[in-house]
Known about the structure:
Elements: H1 3-29, E1 49-51, E2 60-61, E3 76-82, H2 87-102, E4 106-112, H3 122-133, H4 138-147, H5 149-152, H6 158-167, H7 172-179, H8 182-197, E5 205-208, E6 211-213, H9 219-231
Parallel strand pairs: 3-4
Antiparallel strand pairs: 1-2, 1-4, 3-5, 5-6
Helix pairs in contact: 3-4, 3-6, 3-7
Amino acid sequence: MRAKELGIWVGVIAILIGGLWFLIASVNNSPSPSAPAQIKIPEVSNQDFIKSPQLASGSARLPSPEGEANGRQARVTLVEYADFQCPACKAYFPLVTKLSSDIKDLRIVYRFFPLSNIHKNAMISSQAAYAAGLQGKFWEMHDMIFENQDSWSNTQARDIFIDYAKKLNLDSNKFESDMTSDATRKFITQEMNKAISLGINSTPTFFVNGKHIQNPAGYEAFKKIIQDELAN
């Protein structure tokens, strides 16, 4: 190879290496995507469904602060904005369930965020859970819907949810009426719009004692976040 050609190739390689270095440096120095870390989410209210060992039933809609045992709230509140048809939400479902079982000073709050633009049954599944909650079985329906996500995601799911209601011994006529009512859809839409106004745009999104957290990599990482909060 002639010296001139060799010089050209050396120059090309140097340019490529320099470009690669610049790209890596740019990525490493780029600001992280904005996360809703400073969001102040609404306080837990009588509009929320919670799971807490502080409640006598352990599974209820929060009627009032006095509804919790001895008037004492759990020290840590985990709020989850989720979509029942979201695969990632299903993946976190057993983790959150285990946290609720393992950590006695933790309460779980579920808030509806159905991504109807990408999940065709996101809204009706939320309506089904809400309707079950009106008969005191929100968490039972919540669990059944997540456990069977693959069975109803790509179907006409309404009749499947009515069947779930029967399995939970709900008044199926009332359940169907509540599930399809304008009031139910309005409540879920309002809850979703509140979340959007706060900057929430994906599921699941978690808050621990009002502070946004990045989705943990696994159960132990999730548990540590809760334990660290308990230690404060």
